[in-house]
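We modelled the chain as a single entity of 444 amino acids. Its sequence is:
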Amino acid sequence: MSNKVTVIGAGLAGSEAAWVLSRFGIDVDLYEMKPLRKSPAHHSDGYAELVCSNSLRAANIENAVGLLKEELRVLGSLIMESADKSAVPAGGALAVDRDEFSSYITDKIDSCDRINVIHEEITKIPEDGIVIVATGPLTDGDLYEDIMKTVGDSKLHFFDAAAPIVTAESVDMTKAFKASRYGKGGDDYINCPMNQEEYLKFYNELINAERADVKGFDKEIVFEGCMPIETMASRGVDTMRFGPLKPVGLIDPRTGEEPYACLQLRQDDRAKTMYNLVGFQTRLKWPEQKRVFGLIPGLENAEYYRMGVMHRNTYLNSPAILTNEYSVRERRDLFFAGQITGVEGYIESTASGFLAGYYAAMRALDTEPPFIPGSDTVIGSMAAYVSDPLVKKFVPMNANFGIVEKMPGKFKGKNGKKEKNAGIAQRSLEKIYAFADIINNMTK
């Protein structure tokens, strides 16, 4: 087998895969089209750019994505190393300064002797050698057509969106206040409270606002985790109040009471100069975003660092194509990683990149994988989900305990769910520590 692996794409999954391969002493040709060409969602030249939120979501290991983060930490993930170093306050979540996050990964990749970064756009999957395709959900053009030709005509799509980011100094703090929900995490969020009259005015303007024409939007899948706020509002007058505008756990210091509705702004950089509108993914036209969001108390004169945007994502019909090693069934030296496989989320993409890199390294070393994480771990459950031929209606999936192997026994009472999830976490980490020991012994 070849002692060199080609990785296409230096996003979260590609960067993680390249780093894992380098740990095993495998040389990597890492192809990245930036800065020569950027997709509509990309802005910087760095690797592992966060194109949507700066939040990596829940930090608690009793939550599936929180446990997945801990699994990756134990396994020596470069992405998690960067995330922990670039963390900014976000209550019970892990959020990062997106520029610091990307810069750290870019520096580590560029300074690694085993990784040769080639700034070139790839338009065709190499026919020889071990290849990992981690080009992301915005893969298009000739490469997209070649992927479809290689794996079959599996043109699956869903729509994704990014929320606006405003400058901190432009938020009117005489109307907004700083706090975290239920007081967890200190004053990590800026909160914009609304009374019933303000909320209803905002709601009516939102559902009637002019939207950008996104080709095919009304006929395709909208991923629930990134649903446009106006789409959510169209489902009912109170839907937002049970979603991103829920006021539960927040007390307006001006009134001493819980608001009727409340928008939270999350810190987006370490310097606290930028905040993103949590849950406000949108396809409103840019002037409409300023007008409608300006109806929210505190945002009347907000200045926007970035407007909300929407784009179509592409993913494979992975259960019909991939093995649990993220390799193509009909071509075992060809791997896919990241959101193009149908794993949804930053950390999930990272996890797929880690496993694709690990299994590709085993192919390059011409050895059988000494450890295969199963569905009793989160990282293994994601691999099992995207490769399960019994999944007939495949949709992008976040990490969740619903696809993790169930815990034996019964868990009842108000603490039952917490105890069950804690048991899942303990069982998982025992397996992951054993996996990490094997990797560490192989990469000494």
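As a brief sanity check on the tokenised model: DSSP finds eleven helices and 18 strands in the chain. The first strand starts at residue 4 and ends at 8.
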